[in-house]
Structure formats: C-alpha cells, structure tokens
User: Fold this.
Amino acid sequence: MKLKSLILFGLLFSIGVLKAQTDYRQGFILTHTGDTIYGEIDYRSDLLMSSLCRFKDRENAIKEYSPDDITAYRFVDGKYYIVKEINNEKVFLEFLIKGEINMYYMRDKIGDHYYLDKVDVPLIELPYEEGTKYLNGEEVSFETTKHIGILKYYMQDAPGFQSRINSIKRPEHKNLIKLAEDYHKAVCDGEQCIIYEKSTPLINILPEFIVGVSRYTNFDAFNDKLYMHTGLIGHIWMPSTSEKMYFRTGVLFSQLEYYGQKKNYYKIPCQIEYIYPQGIFRPRVSYGLNFYIPGYQSVSLDIGANIKLSETFFLSATADIEFDPSVIIVPNSMICHSFNLGLFVKF
Assistant:
C-alpha cells in the first residue's frame, strides 16, 4: 500500500510540476497610449489567456496584465487577443478573423463562446447549447440553433450563404473562419480579410526510435536479468486541441528468458503523455498501460525529457517503471524498470 501511494503521489506531483512550467513565446502588447512593447508572452490555456497576459520584457522583468491594463496582445505569427466588454466586464477575446465580419473566441468556466461584430454593429454572441432534456416524460437530446439565425441576419446581404449557414450545426473555429472569409470575398471588392488564427493540422503523428534495457523483478517466470529492447513509438498529437498532450503508442521488441528459454515478446504502450513544448530541455511524463504479446498487461509510468538537437530532431531519454495492475490502471507491485534512449522526430 505504501508503494502504491508513493507512485500515485509521484505521478500527480510530476504532472503538476510540468503543467506549472511557463511557456514564453515571442510577442508584444499594445498599451492604452498606442505603444507597442515587444518581449515574450506566457502561452497558457484558452481559459487563462482570456483574463490574463503574463509578459516578460527584454530585461526579463515579468508583469501580469489584465484587460483593464492594455488594449491587446499578440504572439508573433500566432494568436491575437483584443480587449472587448462582455456583460459589463472587460475580457481578452481571441481575434480569429478581421473582415466585413469579425469573429472572436473566448473560453471561460462555462465553456466555449464565439462572438461577431461588423461596421456599425455591436458585438454579439453566437449562443450554442447541447444536452438532454425531458419532453413528455422522455429524455431527448437537443442542440440550439439561435446562432444560425444570427449568422443569417448579419450575412443577409449575401443571399447565397443562407443554405450554407444552415449546415453550421455547432460554431467552431474552422467553420466560422471559413464562413467569414468567404463572406468577405463575396461582399467586398477591396482589401483582403486577415486571418489571425494560425492554421494547424487536425492530427499529427511524431515518431520516436528507441533502444533500451529492462530488468524484470519477481515477474512470472522471467529470469531476473537485463534485457535489450528496440522499437518504434508514435506520439499522436492533435495540436488544435492541445500543444502539450499526446497519446503514446507503438511497439517494442525484446527477447526474454521464460523458464530459461528465450522467447520473443512485443510490448504495445497505450498511454496519455505530456511533453513540454519549448526550450532545449523538454520534460515529458506519460502514464497508462502496456500490453504484451503473448498476453499480459502492466501499468506504466514513464518520466524523461527530449533534448533539442535541431528544429526537427531531439535526443530522448526516459526511465520507465512497470507495475502489476490491481484495478485496471492502479499500480500494485513493481515488475520491471527500464531506461531508454531514442531519436524523437518533430515534423
């Protein structure tokens, strides 16, 4: 029980430390006097960035700005936040696209919110809700459509868009930006619209080539000795959802001595992984299950780092601890510890 509590505490502590790390990127703030001040901005969650800008100037002095303190801030070639008033309170809205219709986004404790405005038209939210409700004693699913009516009203000078708007069942970055871009092209013969939202792939798989050694302790009939293993790991990444979270899987091959005879084993990890996205030294931690072929499964905690060699290649080093599972992913007794070196490739 002490071992289990210690491992769970170590896992939670590791994740907490990694999430607490800052992620400063090149950017600037716009002051109320019209000045542009360059430096670095801490890249955090959408929830935090709607209420706070943590800015580091060129003298490395750090200051936190609220929407009352500045008019806007932006990451170089990235997200742009502008101050607007929502329900009598100033907030930072992410500026998605500027054109004949401007689109904005904000996340708060309730969820995602999208807004639009245009010349001589005040800011208005595109409300959306989904869920279940009871109708005549039965539970039914529902989706609101008020956002469709608002979009039709503000784009009524482009009649060909009415049927297209009907297809926007749920407001999202991609469909709203594309709609606003095409609307601008349809009604404006002058300047082009500006898309501030940086385009990212829906999904990306980052490979990692691994070699390492493992030692099994009190595990079935495996001989207690060091074993070599090699393999290919895929880090499945959805950057539009999170720049730091991955699903880690792949296959590792090793020859283990079972009852004194060598036998081929394949290990397939299925883990949730955090990788810090900036700097030369990038800590990482993952937790989940390992599936062995022939059949067995273990709980795995991996802690390590990627060391930047170039924009594409990283040297990886991880220490893995595997446990016999007591309840699905809850660790019981330790059965294996490993050390791995690898080449991590980021396209």
